[in-house]
Each structure stands twice: as C-alpha cells, then as structure tokens.
Amino acid sequence: MRVRVSGCGGLLRVGDRLVWDDHLSHRQLALADGVERVLGWFRTWRELGSIRAADPDVRTGEWLERAAEALLDRDILVAEGSDRDRTEQEIAREWAGWGPHAPAFYFGTRSHRSALYITDAEDAARLAAKLTTDPPPVPFRRFPGSSTVALPDVDRGLLSGRDFVDVLRQRRSHRMFGRAELDLGTLATLLKLAAGPLSHKDGALAAESGSVFKTSPSGGARHPTEFYVYALRVRDLAPGLYHYAADTHLLEDLDRRATPEFLVAACGDQEWVADASALVFYTSVRARSAWKYDMGRALRILFLDVGHLSQTVYLLAAALGLRVTFTAALRDESVEELLGCDPVREIIIGTSVLGTEP
C-alpha cells in the first residue's frame, strides 16, 4: 500500500508542540517528537513499510513504522485510491488555480452537519456573562489629535422623487468619470446614510455590548467596517486622506497625501482610478466581530459585511447621480501604508471609487 502526506492539512506550532491541522475534518492533533521524520519520508507516494529504511537502527525503524500506521489511521497520511485520496485529488484539481490557501480557508471554516449552535437565549446569557469580565472593543474608531472637517447633514432634497425600483435598475459599475468636482454635501449624504449609526430605541448609538444598527446588515450587529475617504476632487475639501468618524459625522484629517500614480498602483494599476473624485476604502476591525464570534468562520462575515455596505453605497451613488465601481483588486500593503493600519488588527477589504457624471 502506497501512502503520502495529506494535501488537506498542515503543520502548525502551538506553544512548544507541533500540531497537525486537518482542515477537512476540523481536527488538530498534537504530534509526538520525531513524527516529522515520517512526514518528510512520505512527501511522495511510497510503500508504507518503506519507512523502516529511514533509519538503520531496527528499533527506531519499527517505531517509525508504528508512527506511520498511526498517522494513516488519522488521515495525516493518505492511502492511494482511498475515499480520502479521491476527495483530496478532486479538491486539488478543482481549486488548483486558486492555490492551497483558498481551499484551506473554505474547508477549514465550512460547517459540518454535526455543528452545534446555541439558542438566542443561551447567546444572550453568554454575552451578558462576558460583559462582566471582557468588555467589548469600542464600536467606533477615532483618531485623537487630528483636525476635523464638519460635514453637512443629510440633504433629503438630493434624494427626493427617486423611485427605488428605478435606482435598483440604474445601479451600475462605471469606470469613466467627469471632471466636475464632487459636492461635499453629496459626499456627506452618502457617508452618513451608508455608514452612520441608527439610534437604538433608547436613543443610544451603540448597545452596552457594542452592537450597532446601520442601513446595511452586519453579522451580530458588530459593524467592524471603517470608512476612509481619499479626496481627489471634492469641493470645499482639501485633497488627502480622511477617516469618517461615523458616530459624530465628521471627517478626521489624517494628514496623508498620495499622488494619483500611487493610488492607481495601490488599486491594481487600474488607470481609471486617477479620474475619480474620491475613493472610499473599507477596512475591518477584527476585534469587534471576534468579541462575539471567536471562531475562524467569522472571517467570512467581515467580507460579507463590506459586500452589504458597498451595495448600499452603489444604490446611494445611483440615487445621487454619481458614478461608482467597487474593486478588491488592491495591493493591500500599499493601502495599509496609505491608511496607516496594522493588518494584524485592521484588515483591508476593498474600495468604492466615486466620481461625477461625464
């Protein structure tokens, strides 16, 4: 029987232990010292008993063979032609163009039929207990010491008479923009309606647990997404990078400037970006969602949240007579450099590129 190392797992260091992470079956198994020799031996298809040749000492060779048999029982080694082998071969074939990390993330966060879910009452009790020992992160980011730009309130007149069905049908991605400046009041209306918090019944913008309501849904009402605006041609707003302080409806000037060439490069060399009036970069503050959902699957929610928000921006842009395209074709490191965000804590997701009609 020929075996080799599974293609749907990998070695991790957890503390001082080597751990095998099997993302198909959602198992993590601590490995005994010396087992890495077995994994190295079976990088390619080999007969199971061949491992004895890995060491001239008979007793060591016998131990290595027993270790190989144990790894085979646990799907760390896979037998040629087995059900597990056929599944791994199919995954490798179908997901080949996306590299090894994409299937590892998807299958590693895919829920099995045996997944356990708690009731709403149990979840409420869990969070209430957590509040006593582990307060949630603040739901709104601020940049103390930065100068601020006051924004006009929502101008309902800009949206009056717009039929919702017409707005849905007019929603398009446009990559050609006019040279006219984007009006600051129009931008302010878009930002507040897309990212501004809605009051709870008691008038608070955020619950004690950090839950926030907005015009777009968010997993667990955590709203981890932050809006950063890079103004290129916005009337009454100096060019540069701003953070939208959603709780106070202010722009915080981050005092960072970039050339159109830098922005084009940061947005995947898409030349049309230079003709835009403004870019809205979306980041996710991981800790906000992790406070409630401390599991790898929650990473999916961060991307879904930005999908909801960017669609709201699309619809608002259509209603306000603007042009917009969302793109995730970013050089993350370049955007992180511009925004000054730490990718360990704040994740770059994408950007909406806004402009006026030609």
TrEMBL record:
Q: Name one GO molecular function term.
A: oxidoreductase activity
At the top level, the lineage of the source is Bacteria
Under InterPro entries, the record lists: Bacteriocin_Proc_Enz, Nitroreductase, Nitroreductase-like, SagB-type_dehydrogenase
- Domain Nitroreductase, first and last residues per copy: 168-349
What's a Pfam family this protein contains? Nitroreductase
Q: Which residues form the signal peptide?
A: none
Q: Which SUPFAM superfamilies match?
A: FMN-dependent nitroreductase-like (SSF55469)
Q: Which PANTHER family match?
A: NITROREDUCTASE MJ1384-RELATED
Question: What is the name attached to this protein's record?
Answer: Dehydrogenase
Q: Which organism is it from?
A: Dactylosporangium sucinum
